[in-house]
């Protein structure tokens, strides 16, 4: 897989996770703020007024004012009955000086027991002895009072004496607009933008993966071709590269590596011995054991492999896998004598897979080893030639017959 594309896909995956996390935070915040506002909106509030004449609104509250029957300009809206009682017209103004909408309002008045309402407008009046409650009517369209708005209700009231004061309380709910709450808007924007980013990243991720799969398939074909070329040069190691690739992949799986890594190590396994194309055929195909000089030449296939793969950027670490796959965990390998985790993990895995395939197949100078002998060799070389964790994975694969031998 192209390094650049892989890095972009990794970054897109990170963005998917981050945007999803922010979307969850945003939605949780949005829900929390909504619950708080809903609780606030459901509270019944009491506004009390006493003896406020004319329109004298106070800010940031709901005011109720009313006009007394005899006003200062002398104009009267009252009259005396034959029995001496007074009839008068009372007009109430409910003004909303808050930033919320007034809903479900009810104006409660305290009157004398013998007070009697004769007619009314814009409101529904319920009289219970001296207590009168006034509520809105749908016909008057005054069930809600918008911010800075007001409604007018009134009635004709008969009392023994003209009233110059009325005690009243307005009970109502104040509905705050969600979009006027800073945190609601903040969390709405956060979740909206995060979900948008999430959706874009998911689409981008699948497009890149699709493109990447097509590109990987092409690289795989090329690598298979190279691997076949490597293996056909030596009749005793035919299919060796493909076997090492497959074993490496299975070892990685047992070690808990993800699918991307398993695919990656498979590519590396296919070309780990590519340097053998530069080894003379008489050495490569020699039926007997190699002498010291030939063996020294054979060791160079790691360096040759690194040279061949020097400028190949199609698969990450492919050069390192070819260069270091004969290093030993105890530092006694070739060509650099690297030790432990100085050796790249990919090379440590290929080292075990390579050795296993060598033991499990017939070679020019010996027959393949038995399962018991292979397990014994792996145990013996665990921590010496092989990374113990990788050797354990291989042993497990053999014991469970996932890799038969
Ligand atoms: Fe090799």
Please provide a written account of the structure.
This protein is α+β, with helices and mostly antiparallel strands and 405 residues long. The protein has three domains: 1-43 and 173-214; 52-165, Immunoglobulin-like; 233-399, Hypothetical protein af1432 (Orthogonal Bundle), CATH 1.10.3210. The protein is built from eleven helices and eleven strands. The longest helix is centred in the middle third of the chain and has 51 residues, at 182-232. The protein starts with a helix and ends in a 6-residue tail after the last helix. The model is unreliable at 50-55 (pLDDT under 50). Fe (ii) ion binds at residues 273, 301, 325-326, 354.
Number of helices: 11
Number of strands: 11
In quaternary terms, these chains amount to: single chain
Order of helices and strands: HEEEEEEEEEEEHHHHHHHHHH
Low-confidence stretches: 50-55
Report the top-level CATH class of the largest domain.
Mainly Alpha
Helix content: 40-55%
Structural class: alpha+beta
**Shape from CA axes?**
rod-shaped
Small-molecule binders here are: fe (ii) ion
**What amount of the residues lies in strands?**
15-25%
**For the residues shown, what is the average pLDDT?**
89
The rounded Rg comes to: 45 Å
Total of domains? 3
CA-CA gap between termini: 31 Å
